[in-house]
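Regression test case RT-17, inverse folding.

Input:
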């Protein structure tokens, strides 16, 4: 979809120029420099808005933290630069847009792709995304943290994306007039979604083709399935978890119970291309699977530790294989790390994405919100996988021998990683 972005872990607190003789007309390059300077200076100004005006409602305390980074010279410079924009920018500018730019600038200064400020509209879109019901195109996007390149990693069946001809592996270059690499994925998807029956223009690059492809995709209400399940072999069931949303835990449980009714004795969990989702969701799923013990823990910069555990009331006593790849991120890695550390199943595929930090989403009093990286997370045995990912027990690159033309139904029996999982599970008799 974000995520999507879906965004990978959401925390509980969502609870997610020159004077003197020269012509006073400005060249495009110089004006660009002024705008850039404004936003650099703006990074300093945002703190005053959040901290000094008290609009950042944390639900906790930040007393004793010094935030006096805005002095009179900084305020004066911001006012001067704002006046320059108003006087010389080639179009009228809304003050509220400049103000929002100040807020966003503070978080951009962190150099952290996972921390961001959201306008009221962007926050609303993010919460809609978490519910997995929205007017969009029905595709899952992934963004490279270094290059900011956006790639389609999954296209859901019977969705606008599929109908338009978009495919997994397509690189998204533009959304409308927006360079897809110019913003964080969570913000980009707000431009992909929109009113039902409206259209969004996408420019993509497809492997093996020299020219970009252009698509006009008609938005529709998309009910994204976060869990899919089926019997894949005699006594072996497959549960595909596309992302961890609000309904995922209940859907996972009901899928497993149905498969057990159908005779499942061994389980494959497919987390490939799963970008993550909601922290509470993966914890609930793992609580259902694992015996009593530690699932994951987080630590902030002060050393404060918070543990998530599984109770002793229920656990899933089934041989298990878990499929992972380089697009398995965040919550998917919490899942894979816990299964690995408990020696509760075999991991098959390729090394995961490597996102081992936790974001807390906090709404503000004006209905905007911030997302801030607040802690690292660690697997039950104490490993932080940020930047390195989780290596599989069996490394196997993906190959598919089925038909890949438009309209063809995906056949998991032609998926080499699924077939390998079946073989490994059959050894566990």
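Golden output:
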């Amino acid at each position: 979809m974000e995520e999507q972005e879906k965004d990978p872990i959401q925390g509980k607190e969502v609870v997610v120029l020159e004077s003197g003789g020269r012509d006073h007309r400005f060249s495009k390059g110089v004006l660009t420099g002024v705008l850039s300077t404004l936003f650099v200076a703006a990074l300093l100004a945002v703190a005053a808005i959040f901290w000094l005006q008290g609009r950042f409602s944390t639900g906790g305390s930040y007393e004793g933290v010094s935030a006096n980074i805005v002095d009179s010279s900084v305020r004066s410079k911001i006012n001067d630069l704002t006046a320059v924009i108003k006087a010389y920018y080639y179009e009228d500018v809304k003050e509220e847009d400049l103000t929002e730019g100040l807020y966003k600038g503070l978080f951009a200064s962190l150099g952290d792709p996972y921390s961001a400020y959201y306008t009221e509209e962007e926050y609303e879109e993010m919460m809609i995304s978490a519910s997995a019901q929205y007017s969009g195109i029905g595709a899952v996007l992934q963004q490279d943290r270094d290059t900011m390149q956006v790639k389609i990693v999954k296209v859901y069946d019977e969705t606008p994306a599929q109908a338009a001809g978009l495919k997994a592996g397509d690189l998204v270059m533009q959304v409308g007039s927006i360079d897809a690499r110019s913003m964080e994925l969570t913000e980009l998807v707000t431009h992909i979604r929109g009113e039902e029956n409206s259209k969004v223009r996408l420019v993509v690059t497809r492997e093996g083709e020299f020219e970009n492809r252009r698509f006009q995709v008609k938005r529709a209400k998309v009910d994204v399935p976060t869990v899919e399940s089926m019997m894949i072999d005699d006594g072996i069931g497959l549960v595909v978890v596309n992302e961890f949303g609000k309904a995922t835990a209940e859907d996972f449980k009901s899928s497993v119970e149905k498969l057990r009714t159908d005779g499942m004795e061994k389980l494959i969990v497919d987390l490939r291309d799963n970008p993550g989702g909601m922290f509470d969701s993966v914890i609930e799923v793992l609580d259902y699977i694992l015996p009593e013990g530690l699932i994951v823990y987080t630590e902030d910069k002060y050393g404060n530790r918070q543990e998530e555990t599984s109770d002793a009331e229920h656990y899933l006593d089934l041989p298990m294989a878990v499929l992972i790849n380089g697009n398995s991120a965040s919550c998917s890695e919490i899942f894979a790390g816990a299964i690995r550390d408990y020696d509760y199943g075999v991991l098959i595929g390729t090394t995961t994405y490597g996102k081992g930090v936790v974001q807390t989403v906090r709404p503000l009093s004006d209905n905007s919100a911030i997302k801030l990286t607040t802690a690292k997370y660690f697997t039950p045995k104490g490993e932080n996988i940020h930047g390195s990912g989780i290596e599989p027990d069996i490394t196997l690159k993906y190959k598919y021998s089925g038909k890949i033309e438009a309209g063809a139904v995906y056949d998991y029996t032609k998926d080499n990683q699924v077939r390998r999982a079946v073989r490994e599970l059959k050894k566990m008799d």
